Amino acid sequence: MADIKSMYKTVMDDNFPEDLTISWGDQKLVYRKRAWVIDDDGEQIKKGLRYGENPGQEAALYELVSGNLSLGQCTFITPGNGLVSCLSEEGLLQFGKHPGKTNLTDVDSALNVLRYLDDRPAAMIMKHNNPSGASYGSNAADAYDRANAADRLAAFGGGAVLNVRVDREAAERMAANYLEVIAAPDYDGDALDVFRKKKNLRVIRIDRLDKIRDYAPLRFVDFKSLLDGGLIVQQSQLNKIRTVRDFLPAETTTKDGVVHRVARQPDDREARDLLFGWQVEQGVTSNSVLFVKNETTVAIGAGEQDRVGVAEIAIFKAYKKKADDIAFRRHGKLFFEVELGEKDGAIPSGTAAAIRAEAEAEQGGLNGAAAVSDAFFPKRDGIDAIARHGVGSVIQPGGSLADGEIIDAVNEHGMAMVFTGQRAFKH
Q1: How far apart are CA 99 and CA 183, in angstroms?
Q2: Rounded to two decimals, what is the model's pTM?
Q3: Rounded to an integer, what distance in angstroms lies between the CA atom of residue 383 and that of residue 390?
Q4: What element of type H or E holds 408?
Q5: Per-state percent for the chain, helix, strand, coil, to nearest 5
Q6: H or E, element range at 123
Q7: How many CA atoms does the CB half-sphere of 139 hold within 13 Å?
Q8: Per residue in 392-417, pLDDT tens?
């Protein structure tokens, strides 16, 4: 019988060159392949990435070491400013399993959001390059708890990235979950003692993470490789909504001269949630709709083909995640585990029904929540769908031919809405 599990234990060699040079006309970018000396059952070995997106795919990590690319009016990130790509053995505080591509891209995706947040403690829990939960908090432990509670099921096997030092309390809460990787600017010594008990956990210190906001105005070159060997190259996206003062009024004038304006502006709490949600949106795969309440994600719908469909999926997830959270706080189990417990008699009959009813009574946590859409709503059906569940405010790019219809729907439901004037697609 084939040992299928063994494929996940493989640390592959890679045949990529030690150096990579890209010529852009008369400009050159020089990259150096990263590798680390690690302990492998008592043997010191030097290896780069464990493997790529899947076992059997060779992969390499390169750090930009020379060259300063300028195209038009844009100067890109310069050498010596690396975060993930310049990780050394000193930054990999605990190797756990040898790091693979998805571990580092999860961290990178989280950094793409954290660079737009303010300096309050914040936590991102990542799964397959999408956040499963994101939140501000009063400290590291609180931020992690809130992000984890947003989607306890998806957080299993994910990566936690924080913008503040991790202390013992935060470490103990993270260690209570199964995480693949944790990244932060630094750790207390007793926090590392907690993590050492989790032998497969990767713990990364990113020294410049406390300067992450310096990266907010900087672009990088984004490569997309095509099946035929071709490349699509683009500038990376920059989020221009940095504060609530950057919101644009939700208004439009139709071709026959009729002016449509949103009647209600977001209050202070709604504005904070809308801003936080738009920053998190920078790390979510399109098409996406997400919900935020009290600067914590309620539910995230990602990677769908139609706008109303992804809104409906996010609504479904909100109710499910609310039931999970209630079940966990009451019984230390997720909702499906409570249902199983009823069947084998470990949990009183009717417990699951009561939890479901409570989640529905709370409208899945959506009552008063903010909705975030990475692209405009092409029809009012998406607005109608979220309004039925108590969502109170919306942020979206605007620019649809149906903006007048969308604004009228928002006014009918007594909601607030702002435009960004910028789409946030991420593929």
Answers
A1: 12
A2: 0.93
A3: 11
A4: helix 403-412
A5: 35, 25, 40
A6: strand 122-127
A7: 8
A8: 999 999 999 999 999 999 999 999 99
